[in-house]
Design a protein that fits this description.
single chain; about 300 residues; alpha+beta; 2 domains; 4-stranded mixed β-sheet; 3 helices
Length: about 300
């Protein structure tokens, strides 16, 4: 046969293309498999334990909800490592209706839970059933192995077996690397009524009724009464706030009914508009002072 004839080279071209397509498919399949497997076949999958615990927790939640009903509340907390504190979001659920309050601020000390979550994204309120689905999807998602190992997973439950923390952290990441959520508390029905507010001065929290609380505007001592300083001594020793700040109050934590649970008193950033308030825990410009508000 004439080698220059199309009848000679056409079958060979078809075979070559078919072999190339087959090799490409094998390579793609191998890549997909590698993204979801460990390099050492004997190494355990780090998702196995959390997924099994999640299923047990879901059964515990469904049993509780069957007895108590589908009206409940919870508070989600997020604590980015680069900030001076974190945020708390109060969520009320009645059946399929979900209502989320505006995030309130947390002090750094309130972010010290060992299973706290650190992420950049805002929390979106949803039912606990939907959070279980979100957690399952997060844990089940494929991961790629790196020299530093696979992603790390945290799943914790409370004393009743209900989901508390579900997070996933990329191994090679700097900053707020977590995905997931941390439920600091929850309960059936409506949130309980809040008690008298505490006072926060100089990073220290003083429960209402505490005496000898330092006055941030002087060298005097006062008593904390429901988030305010009262009965201060009368020494003349004023303290001037540093430049760019002015004396004010802000809510550093909110109670379950959106009332302020802890009032921060001291020198706060001065502002003219909300854009001047760059601290995530003091996000609203009110009366010339950057504050955090509840509700």
């Amino acid at each position: 046969m004439d080698p220059h004839s199309k009848h000679f080279w056409l079958p060979a071209l078809v075979v070559a293309l078919a072999l190339s397509a087959c090799d490409h498919a094998k390579s793609a399949s191998a890549a997909d498999a590698a993204a979801n497997t460990l390099p050492d076949a004997a190494a355990p999958d780090p998702r196995t334990g959390p997924l099994a615990k999640l299923e047990e927790s879901k059964l515990a939640w469904e049993a509780l909800k069957a007895k108590q009903g589908d009206t409940y509340w919870y508070q989600e907390q997020n604590c980015p490592p680069s900030s001076t504190g974190g945020t708390a979001t109060q969520v009320q659920v009645q059946g399929s209706v979900v209502q989320s309050a505006l995030p309130s601020s947390l002090t750094r000390a309130q972010c010290d839970a060992p299973d706290a979550v650190s992420r950049y994204e805002d929390f979106v309120g949803k039912t606990l059933d939907a959070l279980y689905v979100q957690c399952h999807d997060l844990l089940s998602r494929p991961f790629a192995m790196t020299d530093a190992g696979p992603d790390t997973f945290v799943l914790t439950t409370d004393a009743q077996g209900v989901l508390k923390t579900c997070s996933r952290t990329a191994t090679q990441c700097q900053g707020a690397c977590d995905e997931g959520f941390h439920l600091a508390g929850w309960g059936f029905g409506m949130p309980p009524a809040a008690g008298p507010a505490a006072c926060e001065v100089g990073g220290q929290v003083y429960p209402s009724g505490t005496a000898n609380v330092p006055d941030p505007r002087s060298c005097n001592k006062c008593s904390c009464v429901d988030g305010a300083l009262s009965g201060c001594t009368k020494i003349s020793c004023p303290v001037v706030c540093p430049g760019g700040t002015t004396y004010g109050t802000s809510c550093s934590s909110c109670g379950p009914t959106d009332a302020c649970a802890t009032v921060r008193l001291g020198c706060l950033p001065a502002c003219g508009v909300d854009a001047d308030c760059t601290d995530v825990t003091l996000h609203s410009c009110q009366a010339g002072v950057c504050r955090s508000l509840c509700g």
